[in-house]
Amino acid sequence: xxxxxxxxxxxxxxxxxxxxQDATRQELRRVDLxxxxxxxxxxxxxxxxxxxxxxxxFHHGIETGYVxxxxxxxxxxxxxxxxxxxxxxxxxxxxxxxxxxxxxEKTIKLLTVHVIDKGKPQYDTVRK
Length: 128
Fold this sequence. Notes:
The chain is mostly beta strands. Helices cover 9% and strands 47% of the residues.
């Protein structure tokens, strides 16, 4: 069960760091994906401070990344889960993830890469 909860947390962590209330997302580079018209690649670093919340959301493409500095996250009604430094991130197209809060005292730092449809938003919030 702990492995399942950790996997769920990993699926939730990433992208939508851009939507955290106080999160700092620094876009490092955005380029067209060669050989794939209509797609672009976005490289970012995001810092999620304790108390930041990430709404459930999905991407118009793939999100992948790496946890540069880990910390603790908690989904509603669940126990806190550690997100370890060095953990890989992978979220597939149109698959909802997120819906957690950063808890504890550590800021989480992520490196993310999005390969997304050009002209669409980087993410859309899941409607209840």
